[in-house]
Fold this sequence. Notes:
Layout: E1 2-6, E2 39-42, E3 45-48, H1 52-65, E4 69-71, H2 76-84, H3 86-93, H4 103-111, H5 122-131, E5 138-144, H6 149-159, E6 164-170, H7 183-190, E7 196-200, H8 203-212, E8 221-224, H9 228-233, H10 241-245, H11 249-256, H12 261-292, E9 299-307, E10 310-319, H13 324-335, E11 341-344, E12 348-351, H14 353-368, E13 373-376, H15 380-388, H16 392-397
Parallel strand pairs: 4-8, 5-6, 5-7, 7-8, 10-11, 10-12, 11-13
Antiparallel strand pairs: 1-9, 2-3, 9-10
Amino acid sequence: xxxxxxxxxxxxxxxxxxxxxxxxxxxxxxxxxxxxxxxxxxxxxxxxxxxxxxxxxxxxxxxxxxxxxxxxxxxxxxxxxxxxxxxxxxxxxxxxxxxxxxxxxxxxxxxxxxxxxxxxxxxxxxxxxxxxxxxxxxxxxxxxxxxxxxxxxxxxxxxxxxxxxxxxxxxxxxxxxxxxxxxxxxxxxxxxxxxxxxxxxxxxxxxxxxxxxxxxxxxxxxxxxxxxxxxxxxxxxxxxxxxxxxxxxxxxxxxxxxxxxxxxxxxxxxxxxxxxxxxxxxxxxxxxxxxxxxxxxxxxxxxxxxxxxxxxxxxxxxxxxxxxxxxxxxxxxxxxxxxxxxxxxxxxxxxxxxxxxxxxxxxxxxxxxxxxxxxxxxxxxxxxxxxxxxxxxxxxxxxxx
Length: 401
């Protein structure tokens, strides 16, 4: 089977494979529809091009649906940690939505020419949900924070007029992940019957806790929102909007929490290293390719063959955002075949951040089904793109090396 796509005006009519989601709103991320997410790869992690209001819509839809929905809110610290900790990176890759929380991610996106223009900060999310009138109240459970903070945040949320209510809170103290995963703690959380579980345990510990207890939790929506709980409790003051817009919220946070200066210093060094060794070279390479191919029709040929141990897909040409719809339709059909997928990159000339995002979503869907995505045949040019996008783990881990 062959799909040929082109970015010219004479593009061939693309094939369509009907799904149960065809009549649903495309702005809401639904269960089992990761391929439909507008995801871009930024330095090895998936970032959804989405605003905070649409994040709130997704949370409400997931609460109504009653199925597990994990929200991650990547910022610079998430990015820095993911580069050093594969388990943490996998917790982000396994998430159902990853809106951009940190302004450095927006800066990186702008340098790379990606359509990610504004933050969807976790700190703004609870306020957005509180003010949003969708015909029903959303109930939350607060877990973590310093002593007394969760209870204070719960009291203040319930004292405000709005559409968010807190049905419980629990401060487990400063323990490790296993000590916070006892049957008693999980039962206390589940018995609340909340729609949304909000954690404040520190990014690394919170993500790993969610991953460890994913199958034990019955609350549908789960997320680590960090300082959002402190802001709701009033123990920390949020930076003024102008400070956030200018990208200096980190300085305000250091003023409020002096101990954070070490984290911001270390993350800042990581950002500088990424800018000079990854982001700027990738941006320059992208500009060069745009100039080189400006007068050419960028086509993508997708060839499918059946192998003994799975399905082989050969990508011939330019794997870019202009071919996402066709590739998504093809991948959606392949997921129904219940086989491992091998993608041959031998004839691939270019892969952009949007197509890398689609590959990450294909990998996620396959992992959920207990299947494997393998990549082979990458040229030196394509391997360089994987390295500049911090995706070398795809070429190594998925091929067993």
